[in-house]
Amino acid sequence: MEGNLGGGVNNQIEIETPNNITIKGILGLLMANTEATDIKKVISLGMGDPTSYSCFHSPDVAHDAVIESLASHKFNGYSPTVGLPQTRKAIADYLSRELPEKLCSDDVYITAGCTQAIELALSILARPGANILLPRPGFPIYALCAAFRNIEVRYFDLIPGKGWEVDLNAVEALADHNTIGIVVINPGNPCGNVYSYPHLQKIAETAKKLRTIVIADEVYGHLAFGANPFVPMGIFGDIAPVLTLGSLSKRWLVPGWRLGWLVTNDPNGTLKNPKFVERIKKYCDICGGPATFIQAAVPRIIQQTEDVFFRKTINLLKWTAEICCEKIKEIPCISCPYKPEGSMAVMVKLHLPLMVDISDDIDFCFKLAKEESVILLPGLAVGLKNWIRITFAADPVSLEEALGRLKSFCQRHSYQQNDHH
Ligand SMILES: Cc1ncc(COP(=O)(O)O)c(C=O)c1O
């Protein structure tokens, strides 16, 4: 059928797709560029899905809870679009453990993963002329979602030499009366940063000064294994309103279950304005939220997952981050300015002048995929050209193998090696 979309002589309207790079898009192209053999299996350190490695498996109690919920036959119907009451309550109680002011169920909106929480946040804040401040490097879904909502994106830098802290001067310089929010990802993807209490407080104070809000992406909440503990941004909700976004995906290692949340942390009640609440609810009616039986399993998942499960994940991530940093030190043409202290990824800088025939990060990643069947994410995909993002949520053996191949690739393509020939 000849339609109005995507070209053709009958076109009445021009439809443009935002030309943002997506992580999935670029990883798909890289994957297509590999030449796997029996000896050299493809190893991907590109995606943030740890479940592709069997050492990162979800807790049994989570499976039991979902099976129980499904077997009960009680959760085959629609849930309220803001989420089941017991699910909202379970998330409110879970997040309240670390907050000075307790959340209530009405503060919580259940979404299909943190991705839909991002979409919900941007959609409810969007208005003509709006702009949003995003971190660079960052998570590309924000810019893509902003493009669909006609929200102008303004980037502030994260500073590698200062633990990838937010450049607050840049934030102040970028903001104006149309700024709808400042996005903060902590623990950070792609940098592995875990911000200190004082830095988070300063961010909240900056938001207050600029009369805007903080959108706190805590999808990696609690996945911190360095000097700084994880501090939820919601603690500073009395300084500036905070929309906290999160999900079960990373901490419970179930990204495919699509269970996330958007939470208003706002003791002063700015976000509780009835009109704004109505707007959130209406948008939830569009979204629909995650499967009811998964939602119904959440109270048991939250209450019964034992600490030992969380500790095991943290220890494993700490170990694999260590392996990553040690191996990177052996490779002169890449360097890591900040040892990751949380999340599942680290950014490394490419030193192109040391390399013979590599033009940029994209070229690097495509040649690496082709020659070594190792997938890494070009920094451009997260906003930093000529950097690379390495995901270390992999089993230690595969990680060592992949980084070994990275090392020989770099040796082959660096000047020192060629000079000997
Ligand atoms: C910073 C950040 N926010 C949001 C998401 C999306 O989370 P979910 O898988 O729960 O949709 C991710 C996923 O990798 C992420 O890294």
Automatic annotation (TrEMBL):
In alphabetical order, the GO MF annotations are:
L-tyrosine-2-oxoglutarate transaminase activity; pyridoxal phosphate binding
Q: Which residues carry this modification: N6-(pyridoxal phosphate)lysine?
A: K250
Give the SUPFAM superfamilies listed for this entry. PLP-dependent transferases (SSF53383)
Q: Which residues form the Aminotransferase class I/classII large domain?
A: 40-406
Q: Which GO terms describe its biological process?
A: L-tyrosine catabolic process
- Fetch the InterPro entries from UniProt: Aminotransferase_I/II_large, NHTrfase_class1_PyrdxlP-BS, PyrdxlP-dep_Trfase, PyrdxlP-dep_Trfase_major, PyrdxlP-dep_Trfase_small, TyrNic_aminoTrfase
Determine if Transcription is one of this entry's keywords: no
Cofactor(s) recorded in Swiss-Prot or TrEMBL: pyridoxal 5'-phosphate
Q: Name one Pfam family in it.
A: Aminotran_1_2
The answer to whether UniProt assigns keyword Transferase to this entry is yes
- Which keywords does this Swiss-Prot/TrEMBL entry list? Aminotransferase, Pyridoxal phosphate, Transferase
Superkingdom of the source?
A: Eukaryota
Record-stated family: Belongs to the class-I pyridoxal-phosphate-dependent aminotransferase family.
State the PANTHER family in the record: TYROSINE AMINOTRANSFERASE
What is the protein's name according to its record? Aminotransferase class I/classII large domain-containing protein
Species this chain originates from: Solanum bulbocastanum (Wild potato)
